[in-house]
Amino acid sequence: MRFLLDNPIFAMACQQFDQAADLLELPQDLRERTKWPKRLVTVAVPVRMDSGEVFVFSGYRVQHHLSLGPTKGGIRYAPSVDLGEVAALAMWMSWKCALMQLPYGGAKGGVACDPGQLSRRECEALTRRYTQELISFIGARSDIPAPDLGTDEQVMAWMMDTYSTHAGFAVPEIVTGKPVPIGGSLGRREATGRGVAFLVNRAAELCKLPSSLRVIVQGFGNVGSHAALELARTGARVVGVSDRTGAIHRTDGIDLAALQQHAARHGGVRGFPEADPIDDREILLQPCDVLIPAAVERVITGEIAGKIQCRILAEGANGPTTPEADKVLAERPEIFLLPDILCNAGGVVTSYFEWVQDLQSFFWSEREVYDALYRILEEALSTILKRVGKQKSSMRMAALMIGIERVAEAKRLRGLFP
C-alpha cells in the first residue's frame, strides 16, 4: 500500500499522525491499524467530450476507516488530484469527524480534471460516470460523498440522481451538500465558512482582541467568501483577499458585496478596481489580526510562518500549514492557531445534520442547524484547550490526539477480526 501513496501531502498527514501517536504512546499494532486507509479505489472515467473525442479521466475514492460508522468526505475536481492526496484528505477527515464526535470515518474522492475547462454537459457526464463506477463502494450506510474543491450542489444532485436511478427510488441520503429542494439542509452551503468565523470570533475573545478585526483571506471560494462575509457582519474589516487569479489589498477594507459581483463576472478577484493588486505570496505577509488560508494544502511553509504578521491563524483549508511551519509557529506563542480539523469542521458537522434529516425525512430550520453547529464547535474548542493545558501541547497536536485517540479506542474495543 505504501508505494501507492507516494505523495508529499500524504507524507505530511502521516508525519502529523506519527507525532500525535508518539505523544499518545499508541501500541504499534493499534497504531498501524489506525493509520492506514481501509480501502483505496481507482477508477477509469471515460467521457465523450463536446468535440466528439472520448477522454479517459482518472477517478479516486479512499475510505480511511469504518470503525465508528460509514465514511464521509468530499469529492474534488482538480488537475492535481491523485491517490496520495485523496488518502491524506481522508485521513484528516477521520480525525475531524472523531474530534466532532460524529459517527463517521473519513473518506475523500476526486477526479483529476480542470472543471473550469469542462462544459456543463461534460461535467454532468463526468459526474454520472464517476458515480456509476463507485456504485459498489458508496452507500448511505457505507460511504457518503459531499462537495469539495471544484464541485458544488449541482454535482451532488447529479450524483444523487445517478445512484437513485440505479436503486430504483430516491436516495437523498447518499450525498450531502445537495440542493435544498431535493433533500439538502438549510445552512449547509455556508456552514464551513460560518464555522470558521464563529471560531475566529471565539479565538479573538480568548486573545482579548477588539471586534474590529483586520482579516486577510487566501481563497475566495465557498469557504473563504462565507467566512469573510460572516466576519464582516460581526464587525471585522477584510483588508486582503486572494484566489487562483490573483490577490488584492485595501487597508481601509474591501467592499465584499462589490467583490463578489466582480468575481462572478470575471471569474476571480483579479482586476477588482476598488483595491490594489498585490503579489500572491505577499498577501500572506501583510499585517492583520486574522489570516485565513482557505485554498489548498501546504501554503504556510516554514519560511512564511516566520514572516506572517497575524494574531490568529485560522485554517479554513485542509493541511495549509506544513510540519516545518508548525515548528516555527511553536516558537511564536503570540499566534493563536485554529487547526484545520477544528476550524473547517462546520461543513462535515452540517453534512451530518443533512444526513440525519434525510434518514428521518424530518427537516430543521436554519436556526436549529446553526445553534447545533455552534454548540458542537464550542465543545470541541473547549476540549482542545483543556488538552493543551493538561499536556502543554500545541493546538494542532491536541486536536489530532483527541481525534486519533477516539478512533484508536473504537478499534481496540471492536477488536481484530480473524
Structural write-up:
- Keywords: NAD, Nucleotide-binding, Oxidoreductase.
- It holds the Pfam family ELFV_dehydrog.
- NAD(+) binds at residues 192, 222.
- Belongs to the Glu/Leu/Phe/Val dehydrogenases family.
- By secondary structure, the protein is an alpha/beta fold.
- Among the domains are: 37-171, Leucine Dehydrogenase, chain A, domain 1 (Rossmann fold), CATH 3.40.50.10860; 189-343, NAD(P)-binding Rossmann-like Domain (Rossmann fold, 3-Layer(aba) Sandwich).
- It contains 14 helices and twelve strands.
- Strands 9-8-7-6-10-11-12 form a seven-stranded mixed beta sheet. A five-stranded mixed beta sheet has the order 1-2-4-3-5.
- The longest helix is centred in the C-terminal third of the chain and has 26 residues, at 366-391.
- It is globular, with a radius of gyration of 21 Å.
SSE order and pairing:
Layout lengths: L7 H17 L3 H8 L3 E10 L5 E10 L7 E8 L4 H17 L5 E8 L7 H14 L9 E5 L5 H15 L20 H19 L7 E5 L3 H12 L3 E7 L2 E4 L6 H11 L9 E3 L11 E4 L8 H4 L6 E3 L8 H8 L5 E3 L1 H4 L2 H15 L5 H26 L3 H20 L4
Parallel strand pairs: 3-4, 3-5, 6-7, 6-10, 10-11, 11-12
Antiparallel strand pairs: 1-2, 2-4, 7-8, 8-9
Helix pairs in contact: 1-3, 1-14, 2-14, 3-14, 4-5, 6-7, 6-12, 6-13, 12-13, 13-14
